[in-house]
Amino acid sequence: MNRPQIKAAEAIARPAAYTGMEVPMPHKYTDYRGRRASGAVAPEIRFWEKVEFADDCWEWLAATNPYGYGAFSYRGRGQAAHRVAWMLVNGPIPEGLCVLHKCDNPPCENPKHLFLGTKKDNIQDMIR
């Protein structure tokens, strides 16, 4: 897929504009493209560039697992993309909690569609 290049500030501003939530800016030593002095792109930029903001559900456009959930390498390990979306907007996920979808759409990364729950909550949500 041929995706247009977007600047770092735009990639960060999009989720903030759609959700009305504060989205942390990338590392302060990045250029306008989100690249650090090492040439690496800030993870916040890499993440939001892989999201399509066209609809109420923000679809993940990159790698997915067999169940349709986005997959993203964050902080040195593979993570479910919706968990990364939660962490980028809301901060760390408390131990013992899961990030669940209100919309029941696995590739959705819209923080407004995500909420925290226990494993029991997740199982009950899957049954409904």
UniProtKB/TrEMBL annotation:
Return the Pfam families for the record. HNH_3 (PF13392)
- Which terms does the record give in the GO molecular function aspect? endonuclease activity
Cited InterPro entries:
His-Me_finger_sf (IPR044925), HNH_nuc (IPR003615), Homing_endonuclease_His-Me (IPR044930)
Q: Which residues form the HNH nuclease domain?
A: 80-122
Renumbered to this chain, the signal peptide range is: none
This protein's name:
HNH nuclease domain-containing protein
Its source organism is marine sediment metagenome
